[in-house]
Design goal:
The chain contains eight helices and ten strands. It is an alpha+beta fold and 282 residues long.
């Protein structure tokens, strides 16, 4: 089940959805837990993480998505905030959560470090918190879905071991077969797909495809960077070589979607990309 789902069957699913939403938003805390009385709690939010959560909740409530430049907006990111600063963030959280069955918002002192606890959330409260975070991340979620659709349009999906998702405020990718990487590069740069059995390519040929894909993405996205790291078969217990594509910032992912949407399809009828993709939620 993805953190996008809003129809969780029970409180355990609600907890997992909330964890995934916090992870997608790069909000660091302990794992959401279920208390002895069956309620959800998020413990140990440092003041800086709670401040970021406030921005997310405000954006989600307004359904505006995160403001442009959010990642570089200078929001508190240090490991600690003073007790006074943390108490001020706590008040903001209380105001933002005031209309939700979110339970108590408390500040605890652990080893002289103030942290915020969200406790006493029932299923509806935790689901509402997840929904607000998801609304704030709407631009990220939409971009991940658009990238998935663009990859499907060009017939690349069978050679991929991922579905584009959102994690730590980036669009996550994953692994691609060397052959899929070669086709992807050709779609972007217009050069022919190399001949030969790319699934069993020698190291120099496989590395050349990784380098070419990086260059094609950079050119197509006006300077955006994709790290196509080659995992050669000798590093993978004699399995096929793959390209680990990592993740992309939102703006680069958007430009990549535009490039793929406008690119002319290429004829890959002579090739059958290996179906490598695992079933994973966005």
């Amino acid at each position: 089940m993805s953190y996008l789902d809003n129809s969780a069957a029970d409180i355990h699913d609600v907890r997992v959805n909330l964890r995934r939403a916090l992870d997608a938003a790069d909000i660091t805390s302990s794992e959401p837990e279920i208390s002895d009385d069956g309620l959800v709690e998020v413990l140990g939010l440092r003041g800086s993480a709670a401040a970021r959560l406030c921005v997310l909740l405000a954006a989600g409530a307004a359904q505006t998505g995160l403001p442009d430049g959010y990642e570089a907006a200078g929001l508190p990111s240090g490991p600690t905030m003073s007790t006074a600063q943390t108490m001020a963030v706590r008040q903001d959280l209380e105001r933002l959560l005031g209309g939700m069955p979110s339970g108590a918002v408390s500040v605890g002192i652990h080893c002289e470090r103030p942290v915020i606890h969200l406790t006493g959330m029932d299923m509806s409260g935790a689901a509402a918190l997840t929904s607000l975070i998801r609304s704030a991340l709407s631009d990220y979620v939409t971009t991940a879905r658009d990238l998935h659709a663009a990859l499907q349009k060009h017939g690349l999906e069978p050679g991929l071991d991922f579905t584009p998702g959102v994690k730590r405020l980036k669009i996550t990718l994953g692994e691609a077969s060397v052959e899929a990487g070669a086709v992807w590069a050709s779609i972007l740069d217009g050069e022919p797909v190399p001949e030969g059995d790319l699934e069993c390519a020698e190291y120099p040929e496989a590395q050349a495809i990784a380098d070419r894909l990086e260059a094609a993405v950079e050119a197509a996205t006006d300077g955006g960077r994709m790290e196509a790291r080659l995992l050669y078969y000798c590093e993978r217990c004699s399995k096929d070589s793959v390209l680990d594509l990592g993740s992309l910032p939102l703006d680069v992912a958007r430009r990549l979607v535009t490039a793929l949407q406008s690119a002319e399809p290429i004829d890959v009828s002579r090739r059958t990309l290996t179906n490598r993709r695992l079933t994973k939620g966005i």
